[in-house]
Amino acid sequence: MRTLRTTARVLRQLTHDRRTIAMIVLVPCLLLVLLRYVFDDSPATFDRVGLVMLGVFPLVIMFLITSVAMLRERTSGTLERLLTTPIGKLDILLGYGLAFALAAAVQAALVSALAYLVLGLDAAGGAGLVVMLAIGNAVLGMALGLFFSAFARNEFQAVQFMPAVILPQALLCGLFVPREQMVGWLHAISDVLPMSYSVEALTEVGRHAEATSVMWRDAGIILAVAVVALLAGAATLRRRTG
Amino acid sequence: MTPAIQVTDLVVERGRRRVLHGLTAEIPRGAVTGLLGPSGSGKTTLMRCVVGVQRVASGTVRVLDAPAGSRALRSRVGYLTQSPSVYPDLTVRENLRYFASLYRTPDDTDEVTAVVGLSGAEHQLVRDLSGGQRARASLACALVGRPELLVLDEPTVGQDPVLRDELWRRFHALAHNGTTLLVSSHVMDEAARCDDLVLVRDGRIIAHDTPGAVRAAAGTDDLDEAFLRLIRDHEEVAS
């Protein structure tokens, strides 16, 4: 129950911040439109890259929003205050998780609708799978954000974790250079970065009409990493501090 | 009946610096105990030990017959942090509702809103409130859920004198009904309003008695002066 009450509280905070809501929804839409016209001459490239972006956007945006939101909770004293109440650490993390997952679902649905209906994105697989993977990626981004917020002392540092944590994954995930063509050590690194599996899963949906076993395996990996990051995040919530 | 709080040989270190030097004290139930001392004397650290969020080097703190910070205590202890810890992007009422929802007690948000004098402002976002109002919103969140022990870190700083008077009356009314209050302050005129006084300086307790007894021991009616004499006596003993 305390989890759901925390979810409701986080969503209520979001509703008082209309600009953030607008940015969650509009920024990925705008970027997708840009992408569509950058690849105006090559619809096949847009189909490939645009589809992958439907997973990358929620991951990046949720990472940023969650890490800053959690950092605020830590620095404003409300976290310390919460830890003196009967609430459990997992209630706090899952409460946040659920709230942002819900926001991510809305975002994913709207951005996917834009991609399919307006921008003419063409994928072999169903839109339902794309939305599901987009939500999965959002949950991953959120869990990573919750975890990495523990290592930031202030907002400046929290924002720097975006390029530090997300950009290397974007470079190595197979979007720019197929992972098979990378030198051995780069390929090995990309093997342990979760975004590689996000991109692979969405690429599978783009190529095959039915959900493939590789896609399900990748979805499983994304979820498993999210759960591990969430538990690691719970471990960083110390009741007693110096 | 055991005391509400039992502190035994409590040592706290922050970095390499020792901030509490083996404190021992017993805080009675159903009374208002004032924790007084200058800024940096260790008041907040001691309060953080009582609510169980401070890492302790050695010694023990028992609260309502359980180790401080243990799970069973979390629904029985209310804590006001020194700087307001409320969500600025929620209204006063939304903040209170959330904190109230974490306890199993009936919702008393309207009552505590009135107690802290925020009845007209409950639908305002906390970030739009004045500093004093924000502090009161935080205080209301600590009062919610009818805790048996209230640990209040400087609850009246920066408040209007009339409201301050009302709050102190309220603290005594709560104590009269059995609630234990530990209230910190660095203004001596509030010390006179406590049932029991703990004077802290440089991480050591230099006096623990009723205001009357502290005055008598120091041989002056003025608590400010009494505190000063106690410090000098203490330093002479130490050197």
Key features?
heterodimer; A: mainly alpha; 10 helices; B: 239 residues; alpha/beta; six-stranded mixed sheet; four-stranded antiparallel sheet; 10 strands
Compact description:
The complex is a heterodimer of chains A (242) and B (239). Chain A is an all-alpha fold and 242 residues long.
Task: Walk me through the topology.
The complex is a heterodimer of chains A (242) and B (239).
Chain A: H1 2-15, H2 18-38, H3 43-75, H4 78-83, H5 89-118, H6 127-148, H7 155-172, H8 184-191, H9 194-207, H10 213-236
Helix pairs in contact in A: 1-5, 2-3, 2-5, 3-5, 3-6, 3-7, 3-9, 5-6, 5-10, 6-9, 6-10, 9-10
Chain B: E1 5-14, E2 17-27, E3 32-36, H1 43-51, E4 58-63, E5 66-67, E6 77-80, H2 92-101, H3 109-115, H4 131-143, E7 149-153, H5 161-176, E8 180-185, H6 188-191, E9 196-201, E10 204-209, H7 211-218, H8 223-238
Parallel strand pairs in B: 3-8, 3-9, 6-7, 7-8
Antiparallel strand pairs in B: 1-2, 1-4, 4-5, 9-10
Please explain how this structure is put together.
- The complex is a heterodimer of chains A (242) and B (239).
- Chain A has 242 residues and is an all-alpha fold.
- Chain A is 79% helix and 0% strand.
- Chain B is of the alpha/beta class and 239 residues long.
- In chain B, 35% of the residues lie in helices and 26% in strands.
- Chain B has 8 helices and 10 strands.
- Chain B has a 6-stranded mixed beta sheet with strand order 6-7-8-3-9-10, with helices on both faces. Chain B has a 4-stranded antiparallel beta sheet with strand order 2-1-4-5, with helices on one face.
- In chain B, strand 9 (196-201) and strand 10 (204-209) form a beta hairpin.
- Chain B is globular and about 55 Å long.
- Chains A and B meet through helix 1 and helix 4 of A and helix 2 of B.
Instruction: Give the uncertain stretches of chain B in residue-range form.
Output: none
Radius of gyration of chain A: 18 Å
Basic shape of chain A:
globular
Indicate the percent of residues in helices of chain A. over 70%
Greatest interface: A-B, 24 and 33 residues
Characterize the biggest β-sheet of chain A. Answer: none
Low-confidence stretches of chain A: none
Helical stretch count of chain B? 8
Distance between the termini of chain B: 38 Å
How can the largest sheet of chain B be summarized? 6 strands, mixed
Helix content of chain B: 25-40%
**Going across the major beta sheet of chain B, what is the strand order?**
6-7-8-3-9-10
Structural class of chain A: mainly alpha
Q: Which oligomerization state do the chains in this entry correspond to?
A: heterodimer
Number of strands of chain A: 0
Could you tell me the mean pLDDT of chain A? 90
